Amino acid sequence: MNRLVKTGALLTPAILLTACSASKGSEPNRPLNIVHIMTDDHSFQTISAYGHPISRLAPTPNIDRLASEGVLFRKAFVENSLSTPSRACLMTGLYSHQNGQRRLGKGIDTTKVFFSELLHEAGYQTGVVGKWHMQCEPKGFDFYHVLWDQGEYYNPEFKSPESNGKYVKEEGYATTLTTDHALRFLEERDKDKPFCLLVHHKAPHRNWMPEGKYLDLYEDVEFPYPETFYDDYATRGEAAHKQEMRIDDDMTLVYDLKVDELKQTDEYKNEWGNKMWNSILARMTDEQRDAWMAAYTPSNEKFIKQNLKGDDLLRWKYQRYLKDYLRCIKTIDDEVGRLIDYLEKEGLMDNTIIVYTSDQGFYMGEHGWFDKRFMYEESLRTPLIIRYPNAEKRGITCDALVQNIDYAPTYLTAANVPIPESMTGRALIPLQNGEKPQNWREDIYYHYYDYPAIHQVQRHDGVRDDRYKLIHFYGEKGEANSNELYDLQKDPNEVNNIYGQTEYADVQARLQKRLDQYRSNLNVDEF
Ligand code: SGN
Ligand code: CA
Question: Quick check: CB of 207 below 6 Å from ligand 1?
Fold first, then answer.
């Protein structure tokens, strides 16, 4: 294991020292506790601190509290917009092709060091609860209590050291149970040691199942439609046309939108997802199922009677999708509040870094889509809020370009543990006042690989700087490659692909050069 500290343009020991002693009132070099809260598929559009019109109708006061006391990152990105790869980036501080986890399923190179191992060796108590979603055991943790695969919303199965490798079903709702286990770790920990806790929620992942008390929340609200809801992909290449993540064609009425009554009908009895839907209902207790049916049956019956078609049907689907998704967010927000209350009550707010993020962004109907995967903004961007203890400035925003490979170096720095030379990401601590240090990165590299696969988003890589984005799509043999270029200042919705236009020749050449440099410096082996 390489234990050299990064030097040069990256992180010098001097910066390390400043970074950790910058907080007013804190002891210099005191190792900080770390709480990393990461949801699954949570869009920045649905956190009210980000100010998007959807979130104004469904506020998130507890997550917003972290933003009002911390730094809200407006340009936080993932490297590969998919769960397992994103989690591998988090643990290793490496890009997907460096840590092996390019797609869902197998891949993680377990010889790569996880930051949890280094913290553990440095005397930290380490814990992870909720969604782990990697095909390796949690490495470097004293405590784990993790969900099976994607996890279930109702009565999910968890594995822990005490369960001897078996997954054991627990009665309750995933978001609440995950928080219960997080609090148990905090309660049972050795209070003389610093700690690092990863709280990884399943919600709001597909199929967006709200908890009992919020089943009819927002029922009478009409959520606004995104400007690109009817995008026809006119200026784009093949990839945007061929994907299978459209609300109109690919979102199912029974499994995704919970119209249980339709599963018996000739038209929908073989719809994709019906089996999963039946197993979701079967795992509920009678009480949970009764509450569910009582809440959904009246609106489902009304919907069936209306016999909606075309645009009316699409708009109904969108409203049902948003309501369920935002109901899941409501519980997340409550549970973030419960965790913060505990930290406050225990006097831990002054020596703990609290982070709120997601494993990637998500489409809330932009371009007519749900899901993620594409390098277009809504899935490339992830929410990121960091609350530093005793910060000099609170409630600030940061526009520096940051990425999910930066978490591991950040947490090592907070713990005064040297960052291995082999880690690619950079510690975010120098950004704690919202300002971008002079030698900060000017652009980011993105690479998506999971194709062919569900949702059929072609492989692509690309580079994004503060203003422009170049994407190179490549499929399988026989499929056309294509390039797209966007001017995010003039065209924030990315509907006008300007690749090949003469007035952008210089920009295109500059971004292409950067993309080539990334590929060669990082030894990228496919594109
Ligand atoms: C499941 C979902 C997909 C989703 C992937 C990846 N289908 O396969 O819609 O894209 O997970 O999601 S589901 O109906 O079975 O839920 S990820 O967040 O884990 O990357
Ligand atoms: Ca995810």
Answer: yes
